Amino acid sequence: MIGYHSDMIWLPHKKVGAVILTNSDPGWLLRTLFRRKLLEVLFDGRSEADAQLLANGKSFFADLAAERKLLTVPADATQSTKLATRYANPALGEIAVSRTGSATVFDFGEWKSEMGSRRNTDGTISFITTSPGIQGFPFVVGPDTKKKLTLRDAQHEYVFEAQ
Question: Most CB within 10 Å of its CB: which of 13, 74, 104, 105?
């Protein structure tokens, strides 16, 4: 499930097993360090997990705060009203765009999110998911009068065409 993380470690020869369950987006920060801490305790290892967790947490939340400063929530109404009401991509399906009060919502069928907006350094506008578990997906508005939204990951580009 989105936002939930779990991990387990078994050391049968030591008769030790451990499980960690988290229910927040940054829960992944704990998993590797949980294993590290367990091994430090069991085998008298150097105490490194605590300091690393503190450093990772500070870095994570500093990066999040920096991103939030660039984000307008709710999304900029002037930009939002220019969007089409539906977009589609052959691989990923449809997005229904709605506005309720000041909120702009992208509904993907299986899930939906209120959107924030951001003016990018290249002058384009992005609408970005803000819901826990799915926050941070940027949909870049196309240069051709809002007829396209583009979602990019490290290897792919998905273009959603206005319907």
Answer: 104
Task: Give the Cα separation of 136 and 145 in Å (integer).
Answer: 23
- The total of other beta-carbon atoms located within 10 Å of residue 68's CB is 11
Going by the DSSP 8-state scheme, the letter that residue 102 receives in this structure is T
CB distance 2 to 133 below 8 Å:
yes
Beta bridge partners of 161: 88, 148
DSSP bridge partners of 9? 18
Name the pTM for this structure: 0.75
> Which residues, listed in sequence order, are joined to residue 162 by a DSSP beta bridge?
87
Q: Is the torsion defined by CA of 131, 160, 70, 30 positive or negative?
A: positive
CA 70 from centre of chain: 15
Q: How far is CA 129 from CA 27, 44, 51, 104, 109, in A?
A: 19, 44, 32, 10, 14
